[in-house]
Amino acid sequence: MKITYYGHSCVVVEEGGRSVIIDPFLSGNPASGIAPADIRVDAVLLTHGHSDHFGDALEIAKANDCPIVAVFELAEFCRKKGAKTFAMNIGGQQQFDGFKVKYTLAFHSSAVQDGDALIYAGEPAGILLTMGGKTFFHAGDTALFGDMRLIGEMNQIDAAALPIGDVLTMGPDDALLAAKWLRADRVIPVHYNTFPAINQNSTLFCDRLHQEGIEGHALKPGESIEI
Q1: Domain 2-226 CATH assignment equals 3.60.15.10
Q2: Where would you find the membrane-spanning parts of this chain (predicted)?
Q3: Please, what is the average pLDDT of the chain?
Q4: What is the Cα–Cα distance from 99 to 101, expressed in whole angstroms?
């Protein structure tokens, strides 16, 4: 499994000729390092509807003739905008061609902007993505919550993307505890330094992970790890 980071909370995960993108906030983020037109994937996976995660989902899905996988209300919004969709909800899982998706709890909020309107987009979520026998957990935007222990107990998590920005999500201290509860072998910090309110030192966070026996990968946009 290859995981490539494209800034903020966006990652592309590839394995066995299949590829998915999670939370494709690209054109609105000058630090992403890639344009939506350059993305080639088999599915777009969304954790929630906020613009810094929903991003270019519609454009990418239509260009690739692939589905947007999202919580029901957000999937319905995308369907009405002309995209192929697959609706899911918290606790559900689905085997697709070459990858499996399971939605988990996340403690945050979720709405999608449609012109001047802010539309409820269902519950926010985390994503357990399994490809080629490896499992990647994208926590989405979330606070620390106790059931992260349960997620870690029930799944062998090979790598996790955890927000560290604070203010709008958990910060480094809570993310460090989340990494331990999840029993993740590797952690990629996300959702930080995109704008001043969420500036954090990802190198220091990864040093703290190392002290707990966890590999930390403070990836720059365009950089990858393979697991």
Answers
A1: yes
A2: none
A3: 98
A4: 7
Cβ(46)–Cβ(60) below 8 Å:
no
Q: What is the dihedral of CA 79, 129, 215, 207, to 10 degrees?
A: 30
- Number of neighbouring beta carbons within 10 Å of residue 128: 19
Dihedrals phi, psi of 149, to nearest 5 degrees: -60, -45
Read off the DSSP letter of residue 148.
Answer: H
d(CA 162, CA 167): 14
Is the entire prediction scored with pTM above 0.85?
yes
Is the sign of the CA dihedral 193, 69, 185, 180 positive or negative?
Answer: positive
161 pLDDT band (50/70/90 cuts)? very high
Q: Which of 105, 51, 46, 96 is nearest to 73 (CA)?
A: 46
pLDDT digits (tens, 9 = 90+) for 111-148: 999 999 999 999 999 999 999 999 999 999 999 999 99
Q: CA–CA separation, 164 vs 27, rounded Å?
A: 22
pLDDT by residue (tens digit) across 33-61? 999 999 999 999 999 999 999 999 999 99
- Measured CA to CA in angstroms, residue 170 lies from 23, 118, 141, 164, 191 at distances of 18, 24, 8, 6, 10
- Opening angle at CA 223, ends 88 and 56, nearest 5: 40
Give CA–CA dist 141/67, Å, rounded: 22
Residue-range domain boundaries for the chain: 2-226
Instruction: Please report the DSSP string for 35-50 in residue order.
Output: -GGG---SEEE-S---
